[in-house]
Amino acid sequence: MSGKEDNKEMNEQETAATETEETAEAENEVTLSEDELKALCREHVCPACDVMGEAKEERLRALAETENIKKRLARETEELKKFAADSILSDLLPVLDNLDLALDHAQNLDACKDFVIGVDMTRKMFLDTLGKHGLKAVGKVGDEFDPNFHEAMGMAQVADLPDNSIAQIMQRGYVLKERVIRPAKVMVNKLS
């Protein structure tokens, strides 16, 4: 025989041996049902084993973290809904300030009473509309000074008012659903 034929015969023998091994492996392969596989796993993993305990703890931590994320997202979504109008209402405050200034200026004028009444009605309607969205004015003369809602611009001495109360409002302050949009700029009464 030639060298070519020997090589060919050797390759055929190797191929046949490989096929025989694969067939033997396939015959030795065991097919288990899912229940049998679970039972086999339980037999080989001890319930008191550290690996099992660590896996349970990790699973519980992951579930707790997922629950915390859900709660945080729900809280943030509610907060976003609650204060969505914040920037729009803040932009409307100068309009309200100008209406207040017009009324303060026209208070002593008798010439345009009907006009002043119209501006006052417009201001009240504007305030009612903003109030429907949760905006409220803070700070009245005589209220106690609260740095959370008021910004002190200076001090005044008014005998009729208690100490540390608002003596004068320089610019109205507003809150939107308990959040300060703009603090009231006030003069604080100091008797001594």
List the helices and strands and how they pair.
Elements: H1 3-28, H2 34-44, H3 50-82, H4 86-106, H5 113-132, E1 135-138, E2 150-156, E3 166-171, E4 173-176, E5 179-182, E6 184-189
Parallel strand pairs: 2-6
Antiparallel strand pairs: 1-4, 3-6, 4-5
Helix pairs in contact: 4-5
Commentary on this structure:
Helix content is 58%, strand content 16%. With 192 residues, it is α+β, with helices and mostly antiparallel strands. It has a three-stranded antiparallel β-sheet. Strands 2-6-3 form a three-stranded mixed β-sheet, with no helix packed on it. The radius of gyration is 41 Å and the shape is elongated.
Distance from N terminus to C terminus (CA atoms, Å) equals 127 Å
Under CATH, the topology of the largest domain is which?
Answer: Nucleotide Exchange Factor Grpe, Chain A, domain 2
Helix and strand content put the structural class at alpha+beta
CATH superfamily of the largest domain: Head domain of nucleotide exchange factor GrpE
The residue fraction in helices comes out at 55-70%
Principal-axes shape call: elongated
Kindly state the mean pLDDT as a whole number? Answer: 81
What is the CATH architecture assignment of the largest domain? Roll
For the largest beta-sheet, the strand count, sense and barrel status come to: 3 strands, antiparallel
Percent strand equals 15-25%
Major sheet strand order: 1-4-5
Count helical runs: 5
CATH C-level label of the largest domain = Mainly Beta
Q: What is the radius of gyration?
A: 41 Å
* Unreliable sequence segments: none
Number of strands: 6
Element-level helix/strand string: HHHHHEEEEEE
Oligomer: single chain
The total tally of domains equals 2
